[in-house]
Amino acid sequence: DGSAVESLDYEVIENCAYRQEQAKRGKIFRAYTILVKWILASLIGTGTALAAVFINISVENFAGWKYSLTFNIIQKSYFAGFLVYMLINLALVLSSACIITQFAPAAAGSGIPEIKGYLNGIDTHGILLFRTLIGKIFGSIGSVGGGLALGKEGPLVHIGACIASLLGQGGSTKYHLRSRWLQIFTSERDRRDLVTCGCAAGVAAAFRSPVGGVLFALEEVTSWWRSQLMWRVFFTSAIVAVVVRSAMGWCKSGKCGHFGDGGFIIWDISGGQEDYSFQELLPMAVIGVIGGLLAYWRRNYLHKRGNRVKVVEVCIVSVITSVISFGLPLFKKCTPCPDTDANSGIECPRRPGMYGNYVNFYCGEKEYNDLATIFFNTQDDAIRNLFSAKTIHEFSAQSLLTFLVMFYSLAVVTFGTAVPAGQFVPGIMIGSTYGRLVGMFVVSVYQKLNIEEGTYALLGAASFLGGSMRMTVSLCVIMVEITNNLKLLPLIMLVLLISKAVGDAFNEGLYEEQARLRGIPLLESRPKYQMRNITAKEACGNKQVVYFPRVVKVMDALSILKSNNHNGFPVIDHTRSGETLVIGLILRSHLLVLLQSKVDFQHSPLPFSSRDGPIPIRHNLTEFVKPVSSKGLSIHDIHLTPDDLEMYIDLAPFLNPSPYVVPEDMSLTKVYNLFRQLGLRHLLVVPHASRVVGMITRKDLLIED
Amino acid sequence: DGSAVESLDYEVIENCAYRQEQAKRGKIFRAYTILVKWILASLIGTGTALAAVFINISVENFAGWKYSLTFNIIQKSYFAGFLVYMLINLALVLSSACIITQFAPAAAGSGIPEIKGYLNGIDTHGILLFRTLIGKIFGSIGSVGGGLALGKEGPLVHIGACIASLLGQGGSTKYHLRSRWLQIFTSERDRRDLVTCGCAAGVAAAFRSPVGGVLFALEEVTSWWRSQLMWRVFFTSAIVAVVVRSAMGWCKSGKCGHFGDGGFIIWDISGGQEDYSFQELLPMAVIGVIGGLLAYWRRNYLHKRGNRVKVVEVCIVSVITSVISFGLPLFKKCTPCPDTDANSGIECPRRPGMYGNYVNFYCGEKEYNDLATIFFNTQDDAIRNLFSAKTIHEFSAQSLLTFLVMFYSLAVVTFGTAVPAGQFVPGIMIGSTYGRLVGMFVVSVYQKLNIEEGTYALLGAASFLGGSMRMTVSLCVIMVEITNNLKLLPLIMLVLLISKAVGDAFNEGLYEEQARLRGIPLLESRPKYQMRNITAKEACGNKQVVYFPRVVKVMDALSILKSNNHNGFPVIDHTRSGETLVIGLILRSHLLVLLQSKVDFQHSPLPFSSRDGPIPIRHNLTEFVKPVSSKGLSIHDIHLTPDDLEMYIDLAPFLNPSPYVVPEDMSLTKVYNLFRQLGLRHLLVVPHASRVVGMITRKDLLIED
Ligand SMILES: Nc1ncnc2c1ncn2[C@@H]1O[C@H](COP(=O)(O)OP(=O)(O)OP(=O)(O)O)[C@@H](O)[C@H]1O
Ligand SMILES: Nc1ncnc2c1ncn2[C@@H]1O[C@H](COP(=O)(O)OP(=O)(O)OP(=O)(O)O)[C@@H](O)[C@H]1O
Ligand SMILES: [Mg+2]
Ligand SMILES: [Mg+2]
Q1: Neighbouring C-alpha atoms within 13 Å toward the C-beta of B113
Q2: A565 lines ligand 1 (CB under 6 A)
Q3: Of A21, A586, B206, B298, which has the fewest beta carbons less than 10 angstroms from its beta carbon?
């Protein structure tokens, strides 16, 4: 059921407190607001970039150290080497699982479905807290460094969103790290913009792909977009690019250990295939179809058992992963190195602890192990090897197939365990493996053409990601930005179109499915077809509407709130002639604040009259704001004396005087569009009006400054 | 005043005719609709791509022929050469001006402001007609081939939009080229999606930049976006890329004359500067500032005089352009060719009629004329030369400065004349000139660094375009796609940020300004600040609302329609108890259709009762659709006999029973957001309701299939 999740209120509530606050704000304050927005955007960019660099440095160093150590030990004993390898992995993964289960449960998984839900209007408990941020950062280091079949890119989106939200509220409340100066964006509405920036920053930092970040936020994550936001989101991504680039420049001199080799482009294949012939389009289409099908077959599990079971489960997965990634290459025969071209700069076998193709593992002088090159390696390196050009016949079909089956199964099992787990890099691994397989086949069929297996690996990666995530433009741009090869763009587009079409024919996208598993009721952008035949009135059913009177006795208010768990109530008043009139909508959360603070209680059951002067507002607007990612006040937090219960509250100053309304016979399709496009939480269904006060047309909205 | 322009109706009008039509549609029809959508998308892509190729082939051949001829003649006589050059230009430009003034007046200018207006909800007369398409294609060939300081890229967006709209209505009505099979998208709402695809296709074809096209449509042109649309727009762009690429491949063998050399990437500078140092950021920021300022100083004129004056004006501009572009290089001394590097493939001087740097013009054997290289050349070639790397010191500062001043003035004068005129390429010319000037300065200051002047030219171009059009992400992607240099992305972002900020500090963007000049009242995405303090009721003023009764006498209907020029009227009915009730909104255009067709006239003043069975609909839904880009029916087209005037019409089956309504005290900010986000035309301001029938929350909208 949906009772665990709560919607967010993105509507501007134009009550008296809001209007008074607005009236106070002068030009200087507006200028200051704009300034703070840009400062926050650059802070979000910087913060996310630094977090990404930190995670990268840690992961690369853990992994580099792990592989060098293991490599050194296996010169003496395979078993000791395996034991060390397995134990290091286990320790890293265990630390990650403990952080998640004990300290930050909301940091498990990729986090993108939750953020998507947040921007769609659904609050998941705890996703934007400081502890979640910390848990996500250190948890990712453990799970990725521990060699599990998952990535750090999805978590970085969540990290970006957390950083954005925390900066937006001026720091963490719980840890008393708040700055008063940044604390002017308190509404959910403002926070939504910041979180959008954070998402883009996350992708930009993860893939060093600033344009891709903007598009990802736009296409995949947000449900809602303003063109003004594009500009700020773009700025945030630019900051990320600049900071990451500077940090990498600084690391180049070796200050960051194993991190810092390689350029800004993650998997640069700009030296690869430049052109393609029409015969190649068929195998490429086949790659698209495979991508769609494999992504569809992939199942998502969510492990919901107790904490201990979760930790044990993660440990088992880690051990299995270690056994497979160490054991399988052992059974694979070594391959003699090809005649290396001195110019290409590709060493065979590569030196231990360095980047490159042709991992030596247990092999002899001039030999390498192709399965170890992809299995006994960090995922980034494995992908670089799979994408690499001028390395035809590096891998045997048998090795690739083994790897594909094993890694695919590992990825399915790993996902849903209690560690931060991104889906991008495993997807790229799987996709590029079958892509390279197809590429090997194509190379052997069309021997005359200048074909690179790496190109097919890239297309495979695109097809698998497209088939699972169903992104289009953003994925295209990300693939181009991570490989620096613009010439392949039409081909990437082609496989994406096919794999997405194949996937769409069967099921929903990965993130939608995960959101469903996690109980996040996303509102899709398109209304369902049968909504055309339902009217707004029918959609509400025959439920009796729960009203509040304008002046309510505290006792009655309490009992109404206790009698149901609705979150918004229409408020009715009576005109002089005795007719009822709906004067607005009051939120449960605002009522609870009023009941808790008690300052507005009055003895008289008479409403406040405008003849008594302006309504005194005894509250600051921020009191009504629900803290980020928490349940807010509950009815059980209210403690009232018997005297209090006999008092009254006039709700008029606190209600939303102009909630959105729809006539009762509007079709649900139109209602849906209104609800979804404006990001609403409540919509009142009302009878037809008795008269029209005026008509608003374009002319009325063309006001000059 | 805004009386000349009309709004478009994007709202779904759920009247009886619509509901009956919906009920008839089965699953097969829905599948067919989806199929047709995709077929249309690919046709739009193919059509736009072919139009672009046709324009390119024509322009390149006219220009190539013109320059070779002139070059041959000036070997004998400068004056004869100039005369031929001037006359060819004049002939081309004159033909363009005649097409525009005599045949397709709506094809003048860039067309982007009009299309932007269309997607914002404003119809400009004639912009999407078949004749406009033809006029735009041939007009562009004349004006660009005639060497004026304007481009063909903006017009291509308009061409794409025209093709989309024509395909959407199944062909041209006037020329009886219609296909019944494609004719299922008759509403403005469907047409809007198609036109969006067309815009993206236009940019994709103009710059061979598929991703850039999607982003341009999203960021600059549309006011409204659905994520489903992204997918289809992207598909259209992909088709464009494939078709253009195939056409270019076909042309490579020389079948298309001067067109077809050069790759898919227009100004490939991937061999240029790879990295940059921090010292360079300052001059780059300066470029950004210059871009913002120059773009701000640039004025827009719209020449509104009679047709003859317009033609004469264009001819004068053409002659001045010819004089300047031929004469100025004559005064410039020739420069000896640099020691050419045999490897670089750059010839000096280049052979006549070929692409390349170092135009010889009147110079000797081993000399070239730097001013002629940019002036006496097609704009595409000039830009290629300005962007080119490894040609340090090709241009003298004096030549660049002369060119900048002259071309800037020409661009200002040319724009607003009666020819199709794009703003992209002139903007790139201007920007790359001052960019290269700054680059020359930087090269001479930081002599040790590996700096290419061409990089600065590219940044200059980005800064000028950013400063004038105020696009961000789309411009970035377009710049990367036309130059194939991803490494410069952070730098392009930087200059764009600065130039846009500088521009925004002074005025609005180019397209907004042009829209204003042309009287297109765009609704910006952000509401004005003072709207917070205005309520919906205040915004309507104290105008008396013009109602229609449910059953109206034909005579009264006519007189109401004549008495005002509103386009929508609330319809009121009376309940049994005698109270009035607003039962919907009727559009003027629908009323006119009813009055013209007369089939719904009845003798009795009694409303149709539901006891008499289902309401008979004697109209096809398409009868109510306003033809594209035309004024539709007017009150003067209605001819009624005295008998007719005494009859009645029951409006109930034809009205929109669920128009959007807002309560009277909603702030105009909220109203604006509603109006703009849903693309409305009419919004009824109503008093507070007397009761609430139900509440719609997220739970009510989560309906399973
Ligand atoms: N004040 C009310 N009176 C009567 N019915 C209501 C009222 N508010 C909501 N409902 C109905 O109750 C159902 C859902 O209740 P609820 O208020 O919990 O909303 P929700 O969809 O869970 O959203 P939220 O996340 O805001 O709680 C809906 O079907 C809605 O029609
Ligand atoms: N039925 C009506 N009764 C009274 N006033 C109306 C009515 N319809 C529109 N108005 C008012 O008339 C003014 C504009 O008139 P008009 O109907 O021409 O709209 P418009 O803004 O020009 O849009 P369009 O492009 O649809 O004509 C607005 O200020 C609006 O408040
Ligand atoms: Mg609820
Ligand atoms: Mg009007």
Answers
A1: 27
A2: yes
A3: A21
For chain B, say whether A576 makes contact (Cβ under 8 Å): no
Task: Using only the alpha carbons of chain B, give its radius of gyration.
Answer: 29
DSSP code string of B205-243 = HHHT-HHHHHHHIIIII-S---HHHHHHHHHHHHHHHHH
Among residues A661, A660, A667, which one has the least CA distance to residue A537?
Answer: A667
Say whether A681 and B697 touch across the interface (CB within 8 A).
yes
Nearest beta carbon to residue B234 from set A472, A674, A705: A472
Identify which of B461, B674, B220, B486 has the alpha carbon closest to the alpha carbon of residue A230: B220
Of A180 and A80, the one with more pLDDT: A80
Say whether B698 and A523 touch across the interface (CB within 8 A). yes
Show the 3-state SS of A118-172.
Answer: HHHCEECCCCCCHHHHHHHHHHHHHHHHCCCCCECHHHHHHHHHHHHHHHHCCEE
Ligand at shortest distance from the CA of B567:
2
Q: Using CA positions, which residue lies closest to atom 22 of ligand 2?
A: A699
Burial per residue of A340-350, b for 16 or more beta-carbon CB atoms within 10 angstroms, e otherwise: eeeeeebebbb
Query: Is A692's CB within 8 Å of B580's CB?
Result: no
Token pair for B127: 């912009």
> CA-CA distance, B6 to B126, in Å (whole number)?
12
Domains of chain A, CATH where assigned = 26-251 (1.10.3080.10), 278-298+329-517 (1.10.3080.10), 536-701 (3.10.580.10)
Question: What's the CA gap between B354 and A78, in Å, rounded?
Answer: 66
ipTM over 0.85: yes
Average of per-residue pLDDT across B523-538: 90
**Is the separation of the CB atoms in B137 and B96 below 8 Å?**
no
Closest CA to B242 of A115, A316, A276: A276
Question: Rounded CA gap, B188 and B11, in Å?
Answer: 9
Within an 8 Å CB–CB cutoff, is residue B249 touching chain A?
Answer: no
pLDDT score of A691: 92
A236 Cα–ligand 4 center, Å: 42
Highest-scoring range by mean pLDDT, A45-49, A75-79, A522-526, B15-19: A45-49
Q: Is the model's pLDDT at A176 over the cut of 60?
A: no
Whole-angstrom Cα distance, residue B702 to residue A672? 10
**Residue closest by Cα to atom 11 of ligand 2:** A695
Longest dimension (CA), chain A: 100
pLDDT at B602 over 70: yes
- Top mutation candidate among B10, B566, B588, B675 for ligand 2, by most atoms within 8 Å of CB: B566
Lowest mean pLDDT among A98-107, A113-122, A229-238, A260-269: A260-269
Mean pLDDT of A194-215: 93
Interface mutation target, options B696, B697, B704, chain A, most CBs of A under 10 Å: B696
Angle at the Cα of A348 from the Cα atoms of A342 and A353, rounded to 5 degrees: 120
Decide if B319 contacts B536 (C-beta within 8 A): no
DSSP state of B395: S
Q: DSSP labels for B307-355?
A: HHHHHHHHHHHHHHHHHHHHHHHHHSPPEEPP---GGG---SSPPTTS-
The residue behind tokens 């080799």 is A261
DSSP β-ladder status, B171-172 and B177-178: antiparallel
pLDDT at position B693: 93
- The finding on whether B1 has its CB within 6 A of some atom of ligand 1 is no
Instruction: Name the nearest CA neighbour of A536 among B246, B607, B701.
Output: B701
The percent of residues in chain A predicted with pLDDT above 90, rounded, is 43
- The alpha-carbon gap from B71 to the nearest alpha carbon of chain A, in Å, equals 36
Structure tokens at B380: 């595409």
- Calpha distance B216→B482 (Å, rounded): 14
What is the predicted pLDDT for the residue at B195?
95
